[in-house]
Design brief:
- The chain is α/β, with parallel strands linked by helices.
- It is built from 12 helices and 12 strands.
- The strands form 2 sheets. It has a 7-stranded parallel beta sheet, with helices on both faces.
- The protein is globular, with a radius of gyration of 21 Å.
- It starts with a strand and ends in an 11-residue tail after the last helix.
- The relative contact order is 0.14.
- The structure holds NADP nicotinamide-adenine-dinucleotide phosphate (NAP) and glyoxylic acid.
- The site of NADP nicotinamide-adenine-dinucleotide phosphate (NAP) has 29 residues, from α5 and α7.
Length: 320
């Protein structure tokens, strides 16, 4: 009998075809995550699960699985999965690191530039007929070249971001839970404790994974340490930032602006008060969204399934 794989969202045919040795079931409704009750039912008898970051694979889901050998997340972040519960049950968890690094760094830098120069607001003003005579101080933003970039979480994407910043002659500070002396030498960057980084940076980019320990890492107190011209960029996870505190800091001018690709609740409600501010650039979690990269992520997720269900070690296992 064929082993079975459940896929929680419609994937391109060429990806699904790679799984022809298995019996595959897939949630096919476009643009809508699999309802929880269906996921709970489907997971009961499958050998492999391919899921997205929108699927909460918690202890309850894991406890229902009778034959599950692998949970393959099509994302590098895996905070949607209770890895501890899976590991306790002998289920392997995999993610998609590396293949999305450069694309996500591109988007993070794009967001930084768009927020610095107020691109969406200026473009909206033009389209709204508010472009009067050219005037000296209208639509003025912040410089990027030679500014100080502070990166919290110097991993794969953080490092790729440094390389982009260097093209703009930026001075780069970083904070990481483990100090990376080799990277300091190799990249010419400077370590700073988080509070010092917040005080000295013109741009603060969050590039660390989310976990309950870093919930609201950036809140009222941290925002109050930042410069008045500073811009906060978050392409990591929404839960890292206290959105209420951010709203007040942006509204009162405590910081200059923000660029957000991720939110505490996704999709972000259209009446969310952060969306009312012109000094915030907002995107719908598209960090890794290039055609090539999304395909690479899907292929990697599928390769992990094929390997594990054939008794091989996965390519990219998540280890706690
Ligand atoms: P990574 O290589 O694992 O890098 C994460 C870095 O954060 C590591 O250097 C890690 O330090 C550090 N870190 C972990 N916890 C920390 C803490 N409490 N304080 C300070 N530093 C801490 O991961 P990555 O591939 O760069 O991805 C980073 C995150 O980006 C993902 O987890 C995901 O949430 C997000 N992401 C978002 C998108 C998007 O579409 N917006 C796309 C891709 C990724 P150690 O070296 O000590 O482990
Ligand atoms: C996207 O957010 C990812 O973690 O891959």
């Amino acid at each position: 009998m064929k082993q079975t794989v459940y896929i929680t969202r419609k994937l391109p045919n060429e990806i699904v075809e790679k799984l022809s040795q298995f019996q595959v079931r897939m949630w096919e409704e476009e643009g809508k995550p699999v309802p929880r009750e269906i996921l709970l039912k489907e997971v009961e008898n499958v050998n492999g699960l391919i899921c997205l970051l929108t699927d909460t694979i918690d202890e309850e889901v894991i406890s229902r699985a009778k034959h599950l050998q692998i949970i393959s997340n099509v994302a590098v972040g895996y905070n949607n999965i209770d890895v501890q519960a899976a590991t306790k049950k002998g289920i392997i968890v995999t993610n998609t690191p590396g293949v999305l690094t450069e694309t996500t760094a591109d988007l993070t830098f794009t967001l930084l530039m768009a927020a610095a120069r107020g691109i969406p607001a200026a473009s909206d003003a033009l389209r709204g007929g508010q472009w009067g005579a050219w005037s000296l101080m209208e639509f003025t933003g912040q410089d990027i070249f030679e500014a100080t970039l502070g990166i919290i979480g110097l991993g794969r994407i953080g490092e790729a971001l440094v390389k982009r910043a260097q093209g703009f002659n930026m001075n780069v500070l970083y904070y990481n839970r483990t100090r990376k002396y080799d990277k300091e030498r190799e990249l010419g960057i400077t370590y700073a404790e988080q509070s010092e980084l917040l005080q000295r940076s013109d741009y603060v980019c969050l590039m660390l994974p989310y976990s309950p320990e870093v919930h609201h890492l950036i809140g009222k107190e941290e925002l109050s340490l930042m410069k008045r011209n500073a811009i906060l960029i978050n392409t990591a996870r929404g839960g890292l930032v206290d959105e209420e505190a951010l709203y007040h800091a942006l509204k009162s001018g405590e910081i200059w602006g923000a660029g957000l690709d991720v939110f505490e609740q996704e999709p972000v409600p259209v009446d969310h008060h952060l969306l009312t501010l012109t000094n915030v650039v907002t995107l719908p979690h598209i960090g890794s969204a290039s055609l090539k990269t999304r395909m690479k992520m899907a292929y990697l997720a599928v390769d992990n399934i094929i390997r594990v269900l054939n008794g091989d070690v996965p390519l990219t296992e998540v280890r706690l």
